[in-house]
Specification:
single chain, alpha+beta, 3 domains, two-stranded antiparallel sheet, 15 helices
């Protein structure tokens, strides 16, 4: 009979469950924690997709409760690439694989953890970075050549520059301008009093599956009527795909113009992300020109997402000033004879 997860948790829900192990580079005794938080595991991407404990720990074929330990004391190391084959192939070509060859423990678990692998597609940039890159890397120790480091690190995911073959996306997250509170998808839908399936029909009035600037502004107005002073926090992130694991040394993007130009390919895919209760994610496409609006004023890239309305206002101010000077000069010229006669 199949081994159920509940059978595993009969022992592994015990917070004091540990074992001694010498399976480390120093060959010294270390205490390994065998406790698994069932609630966190239930929210993991594996459990959501129906992956059981023994799907990964496949050398456990049966449990013998006549023994103190119902399975073998030492189990085979779980190989994630048995299921994630493309990710495994990409990882083999990465700089992290080179570290592994030098004897430094750099496995899938180092970044993704063991039992609580979460769905990161809708996560904020800070959550993505803290889960992966920032565990080991301090970006401020490098990037001497990079201007405005704080802005880049706050709004651009590491993988965008360090895995250049991976497509990029702009994610727009709901935030209240007054309280600076970030809203989860479920909170926004509750405020609007709609379901997930009703979001696009309500916003996308012309049914072209793209939220236009006018429809976007209407959404902001609807939230304002609900006492939410909505602004959208924009972040440039990498699409989660196998190639994201192929981080190669010396291959990072350092061409500033690729972002800082009017038709930058980095801003072609703009989405509002809604995360459903089961962890799945809906991408709702937004017209690129929304980035040039005042609702996303913090995400400004010189020449890349300039607010064209401000350009028009600036032009009118300059034109008005020039017209004032020219008009004054013209009047002075036309009234020379009158002013001379008046002076006499």
């Amino acid at each position: 009979m199949a081994i159920e997860n509940s059978e595993c948790f009969e022992c592994h829900s015990d917070e004091s469950l540990t074992k001694e192990s010498t399976a480390n580079i120093l060959k010294t005794d270390i205490t390994v924690d065998l406790y698994v938080d069932e609630d966190k595991f239930n929210h993991s991407v594996h459990n959501i997709n129906g992956i059981t404990c023994v799907d990964c720990h496949s050398d456990i074929e049966e449990l013998n409760y006549d023994n103190d330990l119902p399975h073998e004391e030492y189990l085979e190391r779980v190989c994630c690439a048995n299921c994630h084959e493309e990710e495994g192939e990409a990882f083999k070509k990465s700089v992290h694989m080179e570290i592994l060859k030098k004897g430094i423990t750099m496995t899938c678990y180092a970044c993704h953890g063991y039992h609580y692998v979460m769905q990161m597609e809708a996560a904020l940039l800070a959550e993505r970075e803290n889960t992966y890159c920032l565990k080991c890397h301090n970006p401020y120790q490098y990037h001497e050549w990079l201007p405005a480091k704080e802005s880049h690190f706050a709004f651009v995911e590491c993988i965008v520059c360090h895995a250049t073959d991976v497509p990029q996306q702009i994610h727009l997250n709901f935030v209240d301008l007054v309280t600076n509170k970030f809203y989860e998808s479920a909170e926004i839908l509750k405020i609007l009093d709609i379901s997930y399936d009703e979001f696009m029909p309500m916003v996308d009035k012309d049914s072209d599956n793209i939220i236009s600037p006018k429809e976007f502004d209407t959404l902001v107005l609807m939230l304002k009527q609900k006492n939410i002073h909505a602004r959208f926090h924009a972040e440039l992130v990498a699409e989660l795909m196998p190639a994201a694991h192929q981080v190669e040394r010396g291959m990072a993007e350092k061409t500033c113009e690729k972002c800082h130009m009017a038709d930058s390919p980095y801003f072609n895919a703009v989405f509002i992300i809604l995360r459903q209760q089961d962890g799945t994610v809906d991408h709702h496409e937004v017209d690129r020109s929304v980035l040039e609006g005042y609702n996303i004023s913090h995400f400004y890239l010189m020449a890349g997402t300039r607010v064209k309305m401000l350009d028009k206002i600036g032009f009118l101010l300059l034109a008005g000033g020039a017209c004032g000077v020219f008009g004054h000069f013209s009047i002075r010229v036309l009234t020379i004879s009158y002013r001379r006669k008046n002076k006499k």
